């Protein structure tokens, strides 16, 4: 289970076995069933999750009770309410498992402790945060500039495994279209590729 985390850490920094074992003591293993809420609006003491197995989503619900998916996370990805985690405020979004999941969670206190004790861990978390900012900016630009069909094609290109792993209504929410429109687009894409 911890091999995935170690591989991700070592893609950016080098670690001894002893360092990795110590780092691992700052994480908690979580196993959750499909449709489990890991974070909900108003929650205090938000943790950050590293996905070992399964798929999660983060989302918010608008004043009309419509769900808007902000992020998906599959194995080797991180997910949380970043505003609540870093600012130590109440959660403003939800994080929920789409499938049964195995996760490693870390608190902000433990993350900062590791960053303080190991400069290379501070470097790792900074690199991952920067990559997250880039991805968020890219998602906003995609939503603003592409047609709905182009957004769907972009989604398929960026996340080819998700079309088989998660319900299509989640994809519709993520790219900002109705389920019906997504079904029509999916049929058109399938017809064009056959």
Can you walk me through this structure?
The chain has 194 residues and is α+β, with helices and mostly antiparallel strands. It has a domain of 107 residues: Jelly Rolls (Sandwich). It contains 9 helices and 8 strands. The strands form 2 sheets. It has a 4-stranded antiparallel beta sheet with strand order 1-8-3-6. The protein has a 4-stranded antiparallel beta sheet with strand order 2-7-4-5. Strand 4 and strand 5 form a beta hairpin. It is globular, with a radius of gyration of 18 Å. The model has no long low-confidence stretch (mean pLDDT 90).
Topology of this structure?
Layout: H1 2-10, H2 17-24, E1 28-32, E2 37-39, E3 48-53, E4 56-61, E5 67-73, E6 78-79, H3 82-87, E7 94-97, E8 101-106, H4 108-117, H5 119-145, H6 148-158, H7 162-165, H8 168-175, H9 179-193
Antiparallel strand pairs: 1-8, 2-7, 3-6, 3-8, 4-5, 4-7
Helix pairs in contact: 4-5, 8-9
Weakly predicted, low-confidence segments: none
Order of adjacent strands in the largest pleated sheet: 1-8-3-6
**At the fourth CATH level, what is the homologous superfamily of the domain at 2-108?**
Jelly Rolls
Please, how many helices?
9
Shape, please?
globular
Question: What's a quick, concise take on this entry?
Answer:
Helix content is 51%, strand content 20%. It contains 9 helices and 8 strands. The chain has helices spanning 2-10, 17-24, 82-87, 108-117, 119-145, 148-158, 162-165, 168-175, 179-193; strands at residues 28-32, 37-39, 48-53, 56-61, 67-73, 78-79, 94-97, 101-106.
